[in-house]
Amino acid sequence: MRILLVILALLAVSLPGMLQAGDAYRAVFELTSDNPKQWTAVLNNVENLRKALPGTSVEVVAHGPGLQLLMREHNSEVAARMEDLAKQGVVFAACQNTMKRMNVSPDQLSPFAQTVDSGVAEIVRKQQAGWAYLRSGG
Amino acid sequence: MRILLVILALLAVSLPGMLQAGDAYRAVFELTSDNPKQWTAVLNNVENLRKALPGTSVEVVAHGPGLQLLMREHNSEVAARMEDLAKQGVVFAACQNTMKRMNVSPDQLSPFAQTVDSGVAEIVRKQQAGWAYLRSGG
Amino acid sequence: MRILLVILALLAVSLPGMLQAGDAYRAVFELTSDNPKQWTAVLNNVENLRKALPGTSVEVVAHGPGLQLLMREHNSEVAARMEDLAKQGVVFAACQNTMKRMNVSPDQLSPFAQTVDSGVAEIVRKQQAGWAYLRSGG
Question: Are B56 and B77 spatial neighbours (Cβ–Cβ below 8 Å)?
């Protein structure tokens, strides 16, 4: 009985807003733009977020024209920066639906890039698992 | 014991929204663009989401310039595709605030279109009932 | 007793972030555009939301090029309208990261403007405290 009351108290405390005690923040960024200015903006946002809220889990989902962010052929100006972030735990996820549609093979992606079945599905899954969502650019 | 059951009942009532065990995913898409390329992008996203996560509930909210997506005068190129999605349960919701401002009457909308009092309010309600949010296009 | 523990476990799993009974709605708007047409659109959205759902808490976070929304030098056409909304409780928050990067001092902001350490971090905090999110413009 006492343990039940403790559990209930913890539940009540953790209710307002889903973030549970001890959890770090979690944020998924959506990128759909092939504009390098947008790429810089989203990377700035990721870095600023992690400075302001250290330990925040971050995943950047690139789909549609935004897939180019993760393609070696297109991303040379920001690849080193992303590789560094990836080493710190930031996930860069390419949409396999977009890859199929654009005939992009996995070896055309940067080595640090991961893939997900569907960019949109990944964003929905993350949000419904309690991640914050940030839509980047046009 | 009785007090515990009351607390549990209150908790259950206060949870409306969160993804409960067994629930399918739910996602609300915001469309504010009158650009047909954005329309195709959002419809692609809806279809890809439902392929990746079958049974996902989807609502597309069109407001501002995006209202044209649901106007017969403007949407002939994507109307059949939307009608098909609507038959599968996808909701297409036009913002009544926008309709008033732009002097659009209900009979100017496609027959499958539904209406909501305010597109923004609808998006807020859906998110706070636990739906994921996807912002489409510029 | 055993059934109670099962219910509690299910509740804990389903927790991530719901609107509580009695709560008003809460929405955070992100503005990153220096385009006055976007400013008018976001202010329209804020007003329409508060008409449709009276009592909704609203915060508008301006960062990146969107910081100009809150700078006296740039916002003369919408300042009075924002001041009025601020008096009604709408929060307008300028990103201090952006201010540093653009060498903007607090006295260059409108008097009603507040500041936050990081616009993106603020948006993540709000969402993970249960606020709905609306991304405005390109």
Answer: no
SS (H, E, C) chain C: CHHHHHHHHHHHHHCCCCCCCCCCCEEEEEECCCCHHHHHHHHHHHHHHHHHCCCCEEEEEECHHHHHHHECCCCCCCHHHHHHHHHCCCEEEEEHHHHHHCCCCHHHECCCCEEECCHHHHHHHHHHCCCEEEEECC
Q: How far apart are CA A35 and CA C23, in angstroms?
A: 40
Q: Is A103 on the interface with B (CB under 8 A)?
A: no
Per the rule left: phi > 0, alpha: psi between -120 and 50, beta: everything else, A4 is alpha
Q: Which residues contact C124 (CB under 8 A, 6 or more apart)?
A: A25, A27, A49, A53, A56, A132, A134
- Report CA torsion sign: A81, A82, A84, A88: positive
Instruction: Please name the amino acid found at residue B12.
Output: A
Contact between residue A117 and residue B52 where contact means Cβ atoms under 8 Å apart: yes
Q: What is the DSSP letter of A20?
A: P
Q: Is C48–B125 a contact, with Cβ atoms under 8 angstroms apart?
A: no
The 8-class DSSP code of residue B116 comes to: E
Cα of C64 to nearest chain B Cα, Å: 16
Q: Element (H or E) spanning B7, and its range?
A: helix B2-14
Chain C contact set for B41 (CB, 8 A): none
Which residues contact residue B78 at a Cβ distance below 8 angstroms, ignoring those fewer than 6 apart?
A: B36, B39, B40, B43, B69
Beta bridge partners of A134: A29
What does A35-52 look like in DSSP terms, one character per residue?
A: -HHHHHHHHHHHHHHHHH
In chain C, which residues have their Cβ closer than 8 Å to the Cβ of B15? 11, 14-15, 18
**Quick one: which of C77, C81, B15, B43 has its CA closest to B7?**
B15
* Local confidence pLDDT in tens for the 138 residues of chain A: 666 665 555 555 444 445 444 568 999 999 999 999 999 999 999 999 999 999 999 999 999 999 999 999 999 999 999 999 999 999 999 999 999 999 999 999 999 999 999 999 999 999 999 999 999 864
β-pairing, C57-62 with C91-95?
parallel
**ipTM for this prediction:** 0.84
